[in-house]
Amino acid sequence: MAAVTDQMASGMPAVRRTPKGTFDLVFRNASFLAALFVLVLLAGIIAAMVAGGWPAFREFGFGFLTSSVWDTQNEQYGAFPAIVGTLSTALIALVVGVPLSLGIAVFLTQLAPPWFKRPVSTAIELLAAVPSIIYGMWGLFVFVPLFAAYVQIPLSNIVEGMPIVGTILYSRSPSGLGILTAGIILAFMIIPFIASITRDMLEQIPSVLRESAYGIGATTWEVVRYVLVPQAGVSIIGAVMLGLGRALGETMAVTFVVGNANRLSASVMDPGSTIASRIANEFNEALGLQLHALIALGCILFFVTFVVLVIARILVARVKSF
Amino acid sequence: MNQTPPAAPAMTPEVPWGRVRPARRNADRLMKIIATAFTLVAITVLFWILGMLVVKGIGGLSAGTFTQVTPGPGSEGGGLANAIVGSAVLTFLGIALATPIGVLAGTYLAEYGRGSKLANLIRFINDILLSAPSILIGLFVYVILVEPFRGYSGWAGGVALGIIAIPVIVRTTEDMLRLVPAPLREAGSALGAPPSVVITAITWRAAKSGMVTGILLALARIAGETAPLLFTALNNNFWFSPTLVGGVSNLPVTIYQFASAPYENWQQLAWAGSLIITVSILLLSLIARRIVRGGK
After folding, report:
1. Which of A93, A252, B16, B99 can bridge A186 by disulfide, Cβ–Cβ 3.0-4.6 Å?
2. pLDDT tier for residue A168 given thresholds of 50, 70 and 90
3. What is the per-residue pLDDT across B166-205, written as a single tens digit (0 to 9) for each?
4. ipTM, interface predicted TM-score of the complex
5. Is B177 an interface residue toward A (CB < 8 Å)?
6. Coil, strand, or helix at residue A272?
7. Residue A309 in contact with residue A245, Cβ under 8 Å?
8. Closest residue, chain B, to A125 (C-alpha)
9. pTM, to two decimals
10. d(CA B173, CA B110)
11. Is the minimum CB–CB distance between B277 and chain A shorter than 8 Å?
């Protein structure tokens, strides 16, 4: 019975062929072309980014990556502060978001009573459906004032003058906007992705493993720590990388709360900018070399997220088939 | 890590095997409390966002919101009519472009290309495009459609949204077609139907609700996208040209521009727009979820 589909599956012509049907041929080729279009799309994006950013790369060379100048008057552009901002907001998002996501996944798979599981799962997934710009509104109008009043100002008073901590956590202008705020908002945006993939991975683990661990007297925490996490380990890292990919390229929410400052600061409480926020802010007013510099920034962002996402997909895919 | 020193003067010497040592039990309790608390935090954020939208947005909603156009700087009143219609046009344009390509590509991956190296590569690339930053799609469309034609247009905006929707549709179509049991296809082939007929008349029909779900999810995904529209459809404060050439007003960019503007009525409209867009997207997602569940 399965022979026919097996042959179809391996791409070989079926035994019984009636090459009369032109519709058959057209349909097959149309679907093939549509599938190829996905590849063309990726190639097109790479080509457009490289071509659009090329004048900036040619003008500034390798220095584009390391220079901190962003001077529209003298047409000098450097990507360093935006790259640092992108990486640091994404890193903060992971530090805050990963423990939360793992906790949620453990709650959903191990702790929640069955009747409670579905509504909570749905709520977590709806967090992913909320548009980026709404997170930005919430961040700017709700989170930022609270963060300034209850975290930034008290914390600045405590850490002022301390070595290292006093530099990293001191805010010169406690407006609530800044790299740390952007990172925290990003954390909430990536939680649904990491949490739901981790939940799926934990659910795939054969329950025999869990049951035998409970059978020798392990507590729930020990089952999670010594049985489930090692089993799902690589795919959890993959899920985290997917979250990282999201956090790196997230635009609107970050643009609202990051403060959009072009300079580099050692403090995570100070305003900064990310690649995406700078493109969103300046692109429509940009002319000439600035436009190319912004596309070049986009090109850098594309390659960074591309590498992160490739690693993520490989890690997630590898464990899917266990 | 739970091997506490043997010193722990056990609780009940009578049944040493029946008890969990306090350190282990506490670690377990702590973990349970933390996991529950984390879940509560995430749910709180969701309801906080929704509550904020209702509290601040409902005051800005009136009949005028749906009938009047967006106000210019410093003018009184105004509504979101042109932005709502513009958003609908752009979103449906995107879906109309993405659906045939996405469904056909997903069909290729699930039916014709099963197991081939090329199909594996396409699937991999599609998964990457699925999470590619949307602002880069905006830049891409700017480079290929806005710059060469020297002007923003609704077409460019629709194409940008379509490019974001394609990977979503490809992915769900393939997943849903794979759920269709092989004997159905074999039965079709046994009756002498060519592959195209088997796919369109049997596999697609069997997977219909799942495929519709994919399209609804893609719709929900692109309806709130702002970044790719910034450099493609732009925005404006009046009714856009029916040819969609020039800036086409749309809700997300209007919200972005109005939210932190110094005019009271702009801010009101930004909140009203946020409420409208979020409620529609969440409803769409819930409907899509319901269909999947009903289909099983």
Report:
1. A93
2. confident
3. 999 999 999 999 999 999 999 999 998 888 899 999 999 9
4. 0.87
5. no
6. strand
7. yes
8. B285
9. 0.88
10. 8
11. yes
